[in-house]
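Hi U.,

Before I forget, here's the chain from the pilot set. I'm dumping it here mostly so it's searchable later in email.
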Amino acid sequence: MNTTTLTIGQLAQRFGMKTSAIRYYEANGILPEPARHNGHRRYGPDAVRRMEVLDVAKRAGFSLDEARVLLQSTEMGRPASEALRELAARKLPEVEALIARAQAMRDWLLAATDCSCTSLDVCALFEADGGHAAHPGNPEPLRITRIGGIAARPGRPRPSRRQAQDTDRVGSRAGGGRATPAAQ
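Structure:
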């Protein structure tokens, strides 16, 4: 047996996947058909490198199809940087939207930690934005505009419970620390 090559099981184990995934990659042109020794697949350094590139591409958020385009671009004699720049430029808006959604979720959860509502019926955290429910495939972002009378804006530190209570006492009472929507 050649010690510089790996069996399908060894390759799969090295990358934490099942052998069926390796076969799928072969069938779909992500990995080339490997050499065989006594009827067994043997993967060399090229296959290991392709799997390393695929692993990084997946962690960067690229789909399997996008990773295939990246891998195949160099096979066609194109500089890898061209395909990588094109794919990254297309992927960035998706990632920016994901980050914005995650930040809105964080803001909402931070506001929820200060909620003192006695019922969800009166809690502004559960009011639908614009008076309509979000579409299942395209959920509306969570919006928090006030916490206990203090404006809660992205990028602004969350007011402490004490600050919210102090603001309530001064006259900007907004329901005893409950999150409320700001005047539009």
